[in-house]
Amino acid sequence: xxxxxxxxxxxxxxxxxxxxxxxxxxxxxxxxxxxxxxxxxxxxxxxxxxxxxxxxxxxxxxxxxxxxxxxxxxxxxxxxxxxxxxxxxxxxxxxxxxxxxxxxxxxxxxxxxxxxxxxxxxxxxxxxxxxxxxxxxxxxxxxx
Length: 144
Known about the structure:
Helices cover 51% and strands 0% of the residues. By secondary structure, the chain is mostly helical.
């Protein structure tokens, strides 16, 4: 399936959050256009494709894993200060529905670990081609 086909299906889901439906505080921390975003911040287009590459859904634990993977994949040191700052923000300041509760920290750490271990780095900067296949992207990032 091409990226374009997969994205089209992904965005038809009832639980899909469009840009205007994302809480402003989450945008502040996770969007690269924000003056205070952390390393690994990516636009919604890339974030959605990373979900597809990692074969993760849209539940909170999936979001935690995807964010962790993206941040870990661009980290220069295993647990730099951004790791700790983001976790604190996500556990204490994120609004309800986004806040890391329960197993959320565990999934974030699992994602970070997997992203950090990959030889191909900076998935958040990859220029995804809409005609490429999800399977090819999974092989590039050794996922699956």
